[in-house]
């Protein structure tokens, strides 16, 4: 980021564009993390159910 106001004015379009690109990309990254979190949570639920069934078999 420029430290003086003239440089900021000179680069306002570039800085604005970079910021918008950054925000778009970070939001995409967060959505990706959320999708993976949901997938891993579902996988853990399924593995827990499978393990529960295994423990029931061992009690027979």
Q: What keywords describe this structure?
A:
mainly alpha, 60 residues, 0% strand
Describe this structure in words.
This protein is mostly helical. It has one domain (5-59). 90% of the residues lie in helices and 0% in strands. It has 2 helices and no strands. The longest helix has 48 residues, at 12-59. The radius of gyration is 25 Å and the shape is rod-shaped. The mean pLDDT is 94.
In short:
By secondary structure, the protein is mainly α. The chain is about 90% helix and about 0% strand. The mean pLDDT is about 95.
Based on secondary structure, the structural category is: mainly alpha
Oligomeric state? single chain
| Largest beta-sheet details | none
Question: How many β-strand runs?
Answer: 0
Cα-based radius of gyration, to the nearest Å: 25 Å
How would you state the average pLDDT, rounded? 94
Contiguous low-pLDDT stretches (5 residues minimum) are: none
Strand-residue proportion: under 5%
**What is the overall shape?**
rod-shaped
Topology:
Layout: H1 5-10, H2 12-59
């Amino acid at each position: 980021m420029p430290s003086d106001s003239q440089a900021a004015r000179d680069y306002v379009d570039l800085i604005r564009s970079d910021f918008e690109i950054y925000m778009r990309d970070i939001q995409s990254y967060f959505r990706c993390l959320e999708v993976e979190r949901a997938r891993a949570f579902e996988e853990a639920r399924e593995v827990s159910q499978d393990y529960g069934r295994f423990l029931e078999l061992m009690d027979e």
